[in-house]
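Batch manifest, entry 17 of 40.
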Amino acid sequence: MRSMRRAIGPLAVIVAAMLPLCACGSASDAAHAPVTYKVAGHAAATHAAVAHPAAAQRRPAPAPAPAQAQLGANLVGYSTPNFPHSLTPFRQLEKQTGIHADIASWYTPMSQNFDRAEVAKISAQGALPLIEIDSDATPLTQVATGKWDKHFIAYARAVAAYRSPIAIDFDHEFNAPWYKWGYKHTSAAAFVAAWRRIVWLFRKFGARNVIWIWNPNVSMPATTALKPWYPGNQWVTYVGLDGYFLQPSQTFGAVFGPTLRQVSAFTSKRVFITETGANPGKQRVTQINSLFAGLEATPRIAGFIWFDYYKYAGHDWLLEGDKPALKAFHADARGYQK
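Output type: C-alpha cells
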C-alpha cells in the first residue's frame, strides 16, 4: 500500500462518530478504517457549512465537514483500456515502465451506480481510484434542478460507506466542443449549478472521502474561457488538466503553461494533470523528459496520469513496446516519485 499512502498523503485519524455508520460485512472492511487525510505539513481544516444555492431556503445546510481527502505529491498514474474490468493492460504497463501507479482513472456514464467491488480492486493495487463521471447527452439542467438527486444520494451513501478516499471528476473537458456535455451543448451556468448540486449532495449524505477534481482540457483555439465554468473554491479540491503533446515541437510549457496562467487568475487550488501523453517518434523521449522537468519545476502540480490509449493516428499514447520511451519514463518517474 506504499503507493496508496503516497497518493493520499499522511493520515489524520478523526473520531468515528463524525463519519457515517456502515453495516458492511466484507473481509476488506478492515482496510477501510474511518480516517481522513491531509496534505503533509498542513493542519486538518474543516469546511464551512454549504447549502445548495437553489435550495438554501427549503433544505438545511449540511453539517460542517471534517478535513477532506487530499492528494499526495509527485504522483504517477495510468489510465488503460477496459479498466477496471480488466487489470491486465494496467499491470502490463506497470511492468513495462517499472513504475507502480499511485493513482488510476477510468470513465463511467452518469447513470452507472457506484461499484464497490471494482473500486476495491483498484485500492487493492495500492492506487487511488479516480472515477470520471460523464453526463453524456443528459441535459445538465436536469441535474441542477434535482431530477437526478435520488441517483446521486444513493451514490454518495455508497461512497461514504466505502470510507477509503476516492477521487471524482464530472464531465471532463467541458470547455471543449467534442463531447455531448461540452460548451456548445450546455451553458456555464448549468454546468456550475449541476457541479455544486452533486458536491452538495455528497457532503450532505456523508461522503467526505471524495477528492473533487474540476477537469477542463488545456486551452486551445477550439476551447472556451474557463473562469465562467469554475464552481468556486469551496466546491473543488483540485484543478485537473487534460493536455497532450500533439506536435513534435511541443514542450511542457507550450502544452500546459497558458492554461496554468489562466487558472491562476481565479484560483490558487493545486493542480493535477488528469490526462497526458505523447505520440511515438524520435521526439517522444524528449517530450517525456519535458513532462517530468515541467512537473519538477511546478510544485503546484501534484502529479499526472499517462493516458495509455491508441485513439487514432496522431493520438497514439501507448507506451508498450517503445523501448526508448519506456526507458526514459522509468528513469524520470523514479526520480520524480522520490
